[in-house]
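ARCHIVE CARD
CATEGORY: sequence design from structure
SOURCE FIELD: tokenized fold
FIELD CONTENT:
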């Protein structure tokens, strides 16, 4: 009888679980890291890894095992610093593979580049998310980057510096992910854009919540 009661209590607690909550919603540094369910092979170079990787799961497992967040670089790439002059260059994928230390946009660039080469049919692309501005050590931060791809059952999002090794999805649309992500981050998302290139500006942005978005 007692064991049955304990089982019921455990079941109710599991039903109430809503997933991990960010320790610091304002920071893009990892709160959650998911370990791969299989060993992550070590390859001598990025070129060699691309010869072996075949799926987003291969890329994602490597991200979960290797990525490290660079807080100083995040501040150097902040909105405040960009107003004062050119921002530091993003890490090229080859260099990032050798030393996987960076910020959200470095990670997204690596993931999109890798997936375009190993699984281009999945339409890998960037998703730029714009939050309400926040301040971190005196610097203004508002943009966050992740990678998106598609399968027959929906949209998947990964290469998120906030939760390396996590793949979110499937979602029926990018907008559905945005709604879910705003709840997870506990921050208001004011805009988002899907991009094929992190350097490209689009003329027709997508809506974040109400069918229109300012550029």
């Amino acid at each position: 009888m007692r064991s049955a009661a304990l089982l019921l209590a455990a079941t109710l607690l599991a039903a109430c679980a809503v997933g991990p909550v960010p320790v610091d919603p304002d920071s893009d540094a990892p709160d959650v890291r998911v370990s791969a369910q299989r060993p992550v092979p070590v390859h001598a170079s990025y070129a060699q890894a691309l010869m072996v990787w075949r799926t987003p799961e291969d890329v994602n497992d490597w991200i979960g095992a290797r990525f490290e967040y660079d807080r100083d670089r995040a501040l150097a790439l902040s909105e405040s610093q960009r107003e004062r002059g050119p921002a530091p260059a993003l890490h090229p994928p080859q260099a990032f593979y050798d030393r996987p230390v960076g910020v959200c946009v470095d990670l997204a660039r690596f993931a999109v580049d890798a997936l375009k080469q190993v699984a281009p049919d999945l339409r890998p692309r960037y998703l730029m998310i714009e939050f309400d501005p926040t301040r971190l050590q005196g610097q203004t931060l508002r943009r966050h980057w992740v990678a998106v791809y598609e399968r027959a059952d929906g949209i998947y999002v990964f290469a998120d510096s906030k939760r390396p090794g996590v793949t979110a999805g499937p979602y029926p649309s990018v907008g559905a992910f945005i709604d879910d992500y705003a709840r997870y981050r506990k921050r208001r998302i004011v805009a988002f854009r899907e991009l094929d290139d992190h350097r490209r500006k689009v003329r027709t942005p997508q809506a974040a919540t109400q069918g229109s978005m300012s550029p």
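CARD ANNOTATION: Residues 2-16 form the longest helix (15 residues). Residues 1-19, 202-215 have pLDDT under 50 and may be disordered.
SHELF: design records, drawer C
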